[in-house]
Each structure stands twice: as structure tokens, then as C-alpha cells.
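Q:
Got a chain?
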Amino acid sequence: MIGKNNWLLEAVQTADEPRAPWIRGVVASAVENPAIKAAILAIVDQKKPGGVEVWITGSRAKGNNRPDSDWDVVVLHPKAKPILPGYSGPVILEKKQIFNGDWVEAVWVTPSDWNHPGQYMSDCRQYGFRIR
């Protein structure tokens, strides 16, 4: 799990893990422009303050993103609505463009939904990176 205050350092130190492509791509770009992380966290905090964890998921986490790929963000929040029975994952609650033209798509889930058996949350657990 990535720490709250030293997420980039820990990500670089874990470069031998299966997430190494993400580290070479996304973390490198975040180091060049740390404002990306700040912009993502600002969107999260403006929409629904109080999230206990914020994760980068999707193609950016898997390392198979394209230059036009969005930033998929999962926020664990105690007051989020649970994933409905029969659904494989949460509903996108926020989609905003940040300063560099990239899009951020964020979902809020309850901490208990982190272990939801659907493919979306399974990918989050396998490939995701905690940024807060």
C-alpha cells in the first residue's frame, strides 16, 4: 500500500512489482508535474470531502494507458452509496477536465465495497495505487 505522505518514493521503491509499467509512465509524469496529483485531489475534495483513501486505477495504473487516457480515481468514503446488487462496480460520480487537458473520472465507494467481487473493484485491488 502506498503511504499517505511519501507515495512517489514508495512507488519508485516498488518498481520491481507487477505495476512497474505504471511507475515508468505515470509516476514519471507526476514527478515532472506534481500538480496532476494536486488537481485530482482537489476534484475529490470539492465533490465530497472526507474520503479516507484515494486510488489511481484503470489503464494508468495498469501501465497500458494512451496519451489521451483519462485518470480513473476510486475514493473510499464512509458515506458513499454502496455498489448495488447485480452491478459489477460503482457509478462514475464526477468527470472533470484538469489544467493539462486530461480528464479525471472519479467514483466513491464504501470501505466495505473495496472487497466487492466485481471486475472493476478486482482490478482496483490488483493494479491500483493509493495517492492519499
In short: DSSP finds five helices and five strands in the chain. The first helix runs from residue 7 to 13.
